[in-house]
Design brief:
By secondary structure, the chain is mostly helical. It is built from ten helices and no strands.
Length: 193
């Protein structure tokens, strides 16, 4: 079960009031990218993709946290009964269910970390998890970024970007270019806030 598009947009607006920041527009860009890509992939639901993209960082509602925003989003979406959105709150930061692939500070309690790893390991991920991971890596705060530039920016800010994660993101880009039959930068070129 997912919220409607309007409900998801309201959840994001309410969350931004609690913790204003660039993350809100980043989420909107990710949602627009996910919607556009899914619309060009056979068998994918563009509305669902938009909603999942919009809510992937919803855990930021609860304050400035790094890894904590992942568990906060998961817990929040689960509490609202939106299990699929909860899963994407977790999966968008991990191409594998291993803590070493998180980029940023580990600011979770032992209980939050245990919940995160357990939920990630048990999650049955699908193409929507891959799509939101990709869109998270493409979405800036004003528009679509070159994926390598975005990853390099993250590496500058946090001091690292595991090569395996870098390669996984490039593989996702190639996967969705094959699925859409298009260059993603061309497909997404007009997306902006």
């Amino acid at each position: 079960m997912l919220p409607t598009r309007e409900e998801a947009e309201q959840l994001l607006m309410e969350a931004e009031k609690c913790n204003p920041g660039a993350w809100g527009n980043h989420s909107r860009i990710a949602a627009k990218c996910a919607e556009r890509i899914a619309a060009h992939c056979p068998g994918m639901d563009s509305e669902k993709a938009y909603i999942l993209g919009l809510l992937h960082d919803i855990g930021r509602k609860f304050g400035v946290r790094h890894l904590g925003h992942v568990t906060d989003g998961y817990i929040y979406m689960k509490a609202l009964g939106y299990d699929e959105a909860a899963r994407v709150c977790l999966s968008h930061s991990f191409h594998k269910p291993e803590l070493r692939f998180y980029i940023g500070k580990t600011d979770t309690t032992e209980a939050e970390t245990a919940l995160l790893l357990s939920a990630l390991t048990e999650a049955k991920q699908d193409e929507y998890d891959d799509l939101i991971r990709l869109c998270d890596a493409l979405a800036g705060t004003e528009g679509v970024m070159n994926i390598e530039d975005r990853m390099a920016d993250v590496k500058r800010r946090y001091g690292l970007y595991p090569q395996e994660k870098w390669d996984a993101n490039l593989a996702l880009k190639a996967k969705f270019e094959e699925a859409t039959g298009q260059n993603l930068y061309e497909l997404l070129r007009d997306i902006q806030i």
